[in-house]
């Protein structure tokens, strides 16, 4: 006779299935948002791309805005973790910024649909205030801006950045990322991403007042 499943086992299976469906739907939405933009993306197409029914999509998300917020929150958590993993042992605050920038370029290159949907918005990543961005996207931009501004504050305090307020230094970093990554996409992503990262780092060595290497 088969041993009956415990209630905790059944709950674990249900949680795993729920997580799997949410991940499928978020990944499908990320693709659809990158192709058509948020406004024109249709829930039916998200369901089709995810390989699930429209009812299943609505079972896990209230609508497009809910999926959009979940996507931005998930990717931003991954983004912060990727930068932290690369910079946690770097002692120089300025070097940590530059190492972090390289990690950020590589992160966006590894998530091209996420990059594209932000480019599609046509807004400045360095101005995450007021009505800029949409829903969870605003929180994602603020998180990135605050993270880099804190790093710039440490570099200013250490005397590695002079003549710039931390907020301006942070905005320069974010703007450089947007300019170079948008150019990379526009040109068909043919330039090796390592070369793109090198170019951004060289630019920031100069714009942040450091001696270029």
UniProtKB/TrEMBL annotation:
Pfam (any one): TetR_N
Alphabetical keyword list: DNA-binding, Transcription, Transcription regulation
The keyword Transcription regulation is annotated on this UniProt entry: yes
Protein name stated in the entry: TetR/AcrR family transcriptional regulator
Domain (HTH tetR-type) ranges: 19-79
Portion annotated as DNA-binding: 42-61
Spans through the membrane: none
PANTHER family: HTH-TYPE TRANSCRIPTIONAL REGULATOR BETI, HTH-TYPE TRANSCRIPTIONAL REGULATOR RUTR
